[in-house]
Design goal:
By secondary structure, this protein is an all-alpha fold. The chain has 2 helices and no strands.
Length: about 60
């Protein structure tokens, strides 16, 4: 059985919020592998948000 639910925020907003939350968590952690992994996830979320904005832009041109 499938559950259907309404998204209350756009994917870009969700990714931006996730990146902000992850950066906040990373600030509270000591330097190390776990902190680096969280910062990597934050960068990925920011990149994905920017990519989605670019794909939706009206000035999008295909690469030559």
């Amino acid at each position: 059985m499938w559950r259907i639910f309404e998204q209350r925020e756009s994917p870009e907003q969700r990714l931006s919020r996730e990146a902000r939350d992850l950066r906040g968590r990373a600030k509270q952690m000591p330097h190390g592998v776990a902190r680096d992994a969280i910062l990597r996830r934050a960068r990925q979320a920011e990149t994905n948000s920017q990519r989605d904005q670019w794909l939706k832009s009206s000035g999008l041109r295909s690469p030559n």
